[in-house]
Amino acid sequence: MIQKSAHRFRNFGQRLSPTPRGARLARLLATEQLRAWGLPLDPAAHIVAELAANAVTHGRVPGRDFALSLYVIGGTLRVEVTDTRGDRMPSLRHGTPDDESGRGLLLVDTLADRWGVFEGLPPRKTVWAEIRLSPEPENARFGDKGDPFQAETGEKEPHQAPPLPPAAQTHSRE
After folding, report:
1. 137: DSSP letter
2. What is the gyration radius of the CA atoms in the chain, in angstroms?
3. pLDDT (tens digit, 9 = 90+) per residue, 90-144?
4. DSSP secondary structure string for all residues of 14-72
5. Do residues 141 and 152 lie in contact, with contact meaning Cβ atoms separated by under 8 Å?
6. Contacts for 5 with CB less than 8 Å, ≥ 6 apart
């Protein structure tokens, strides 16, 4: 007998060029993927835009791409942006009204339920943000929410999701 799992796992990943065009493409790809999954675009699109812009502005190394990953695990959407400047760890700063930049992580902190950063294999770092999603209806069918794991018969279940890496630095409003 197959038991239905309350937790669903979806993922998307793409490597992109560390340019303004790559950052725009990250936002566009993320919004299309969220749309395909039937998930709300906001605030995730804004978070992707800010993290991708930070990756190409502060984490850029010529010739090395940055990576965008989206995960839905249970009722949480996790956005990860990985770049190759592990020596430059981001920090939340409160700018002055005259500052022309430097508010990206402040927006992420406001929009996300939790966010943080962890060091990857040198020279990488990953900045992540999590957003709680509203629960899916029990009777959702394939196509209703863009859920590739629930077939029309409801008999197909996804494989267990890999654990998320531990966050070295976590910021939460809980």
Report:
1. P
2. 17
3. 888 877 777 767 788 999 999 999 999 999 998 999 999 999 997 654 444 444 4
4. EEE-SSHHHHHHHHHHHHHHHHHHT---TTHHHHHHHHHHHHHHHS-BTTB-EEEEEEE
5. yes
6. 157, 158
